[in-house]
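Appendix B, example 12.
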Amino acid sequence: MLVKGTIILGLMFASSAFATSRGTVTNCTNQRVNVCVYNGKDSVRAFAAQDFQLGAGESKNFRCKGENKGRCKIQFIPRSQSVCGELSPRTYNVKRRQNLHLTAYNESSLESTASVANSCP
């Protein structure tokens, strides 16, 4: 019985370490953007856990596997680029239950500015 209880307890801790991280991303700009969300340990941004479009002023909940990092990685890509994982100069690390607000985005240079805040500036 002790071994069985230890295994169950171990699985509970393992699953919480890899728990889902979630939050909200808000587009505070006046243009539509594509959003790519990656798991916590996806350092090369190989596979997006989620991808979606956000119109001007829109918000959407996101989630990923925290993978012992307790965070998701978020990247903004141009509307013309429909595939996540391609080059983008900036990836944002968003901790569990944080909200990310995109405040500026230049589609031609791929530069973005975002912050963890409670509302758009």
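Confidence is low (pLDDT under 50) at residues 5-17. The chain has one domain: 2-116.
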